Amino acid sequence: MRLTPKAATLLVLALLVALTPFFFPSGYYYRVGALLFVNGIAVTGIVILTGYAGQISLGHAGFSGIGAYACALAPTHLGLHPALAIVLGAALSAVLAYLVGRPILRLKGYYLGVATLGFGILVSMVLNNERDLTNGPDGIDVPDLGLRALLETWGLDLTNGQFWYFFCGLSLILGAWLALNLYDSPTGRALRALHGSEVAARTVGVDVARLKLQAFVISAVYASVAGSLLALQNKFITPDVAGFMHSIEMVTMAVLGGVGSVLGAILGAGILTLLPQVLTVFAEYEQMVLGLVMVLVMIFLREGLLPSIFKAIRGKGE
Amino acid sequence: MQKTLTTTALGLLAVLGLSGAATADIVLGASVSATGPAAFLGDPEAKTLEMMVEALNAKGGINGEQVKLVLYDDGGDPNKARTFATRLVEDDEAVAIIGGSTTGTSMSILDVTEDAEVPFISLAGAIDIIDPVKPYTFKTPHTDRMACQKIFEDMQKRGFTKIGMISGTDGFGASMQAQCKAVAGDHGIEIVADETYDPKDADMTAQLTKIKNAEGVQAVLNPGFGQGPSIVTRNFRQLAIDLPLYQSHGVASDGFIELAGADAAEGVRLPGTALLVADLLPEGDPQKPVVTAYKTEFEAKTGTSVGTFGGYAHDAFLILTDAITRAGSAEPAAIRDAIEQTKGLAGTTGIYTFSPEDHLGLDLSAFRMLEIKGGTWTLVE
């Protein structure tokens, strides 16, 4: 039996989440794994926007910021359960993405990049300066999700690190599944058509403006959920989450691994999450190594790591 | 291509194989912001810790055991700080953790250390870190509120009742601005002008002109750190504002005088630690020996002058080694109990006396009111 690419991707992810813990020498690796999965979720959103629809955003950390601060603020100010705060943050991000996306998705290339960049910086400024609400650059406490305690009453006793590892891992599999379904759907095909050529897509009757907006909104929701999960597991959040560097990081992860493929982008997220942990000894050169890796990938593996690897394997087989 | 795959696989294996290299030695952990926007805090802290561990081991360690310091650079990112704290606790099996150069990183670390019941000594200013008191969390720097109180005490002595404030909008400036406004009333001081600037601004004359024109203003206070206060000081002289200028402990280093210029900084007062005026301390001052020793060692080792921030790390390390020595054990719980019983321990920042209700251990006497005269620091009595 031959696996479809969708089933293969999900199988690889599921095996990864389920099996790697057997090799963990200490609890610290659960934390790194959980971070990897959170980044994976955000990057999957970038795949939909950049990989499928061919649009670029340099401000997606703004949506992560909204998701994160929704979890910090909604429970205390609105009395919402933190789990519902994730939904609220996602809804808020979707609405904002819709409002912001309508005008700026008319822009192309550099202009779109700059406009999204501006959006991200605006969110970060609001989080930094609305001190009465967000506590400013010092950061703010985030309430406990409470799910771990609930699992404990059902007899499933996980450490904090284990809980977040599996919770984020399952969220990532769910997110990847949705993204892969979208890829095969009529909407996904239309998105890819628009990526190939906007003019051609329009002539065959694709509503280009609406589709771009859809992709933007969906990817904003992914970024927002990733931000929420980060805030909830850290139980503390600062405006850094919405910072410019975080936006760039998301795009870099996706492009490094291969922005056209969900698994590739997650591989990119994995590499860029693990690298700083391996390079602690030369923390000062971390940025340099990252830059070098990026430049080499852009020159020699233009489609990103994973697609290029697949291509090479296939090329050899023939 | 095969090669790429092999390299990736090897890389992954290396990550998975990086298990804790803990030995029979005492492992102390640290996560500071040696690079990034808070590097001016973390860099001297990292250098101080490395220097002190080396010196301690050369002297035979603690209770005959060598000390191993595992030091990470979190770059000022709270998310990274949390990961490193987890790594220190779970993987490196550190018995105590020093760190958190900023409030954000400290708050991230303390959640991990409280959970794991490992003592943590923070190097950040905010009062939230130890108020309410958390069993395993301590800190060495005085709070912003104490700096405000020290400044207002001095203003009271000079008979000022109406002052203007110009604060940076960064974390430090904004937090201190809020604290000062909260305690001004206790000292009979009214804030008649309250201006702010962005830490990246290159000119503050507009805000200062407004303060100058405020009715009855008798002195000006500038909570902030980095280059902002130097520019404020320069603009202050350029506008020929004939009022006493107070700066915060955030700029208590020789770098500030250099940046503002000795002429402009003349007469500026600020609350600083004994470290800055090591030579001026009277003989018999309990802090004199420790301050002089640290200053000499640090300056000989790094070739840069000592600052308040490196001193915070010095004190954290001192408190830890003192506690481990007294406890006679390197068990986290025993260290915690011993830290809480610390009495009259002279550090560079002040004299520490901890208790179950007080995990800061300093009082206002830790601050010395300093005045810049002729391009150097002098003590105000």
Structural class of chain B: alpha/beta
Order of helices and strands of chain B: HEHEHEHEEHEHEHEHEHHEHHHEEEE
Task: Give Rg of chain A in angstroms.
Answer: 19 Å
Give the count of helical stretches of chain B.
Answer: 13
Radius of gyration of chain B: 22 Å
How many helices of chain A? The count is: 15
Largest sheet of chain A: 2 strands, antiparallel
Please provide the count of β strands of chain A. 2
Strand percentage of chain A: under 5%
Q: What this model shows, in words?
A:
The complex is a heterodimer of chains A (about 325) and B (about 375). By secondary structure, chain A is mainly alpha-helical. Chain A has helices at about 5-20, 30-50, 60-75, 80-105, 110-130, 130-135, 145-155, 160-185, 185-195, 200-205, 210-235, 245-255, 260-280, 285-300, 305-315; strands spanning about 140, 235. Chain A is built from 15 helices and 2 strands. In chain A, helix 2 (about 30-50) packs parallel to helix 8, helix 2 (about 30-50) packs across helix 13 (about 260-280) and helix 12 crosses helix 13. The two termini of chain A are about 20 Å apart. Chain B is built from 13 helices and 14 strands. Chain B has helices spanning about 1-15, 40-60, 80-90, 105-115, 145-155, 170-185, 205-210, 230-240, 255-260, 260-265, 290-300, 310-325, 330-340; strands spanning about 25-30, 65-75, 95-100, 120, 135-140, 160-170, 190-195, 220, 245, 270, 345, 350, 370-375, 375-380. In chain B, the strands form 4 sheets. Chain B has a 5-stranded parallel β-sheet with strand order 2-1-3-4-5, sandwiched between helices. Chain B is globular and about 60 Å long. Classes of the chains: A mainly alpha (about 325), B alpha/beta (about 375). The interface of A and B includes residues 20, 141 and 280 of A.
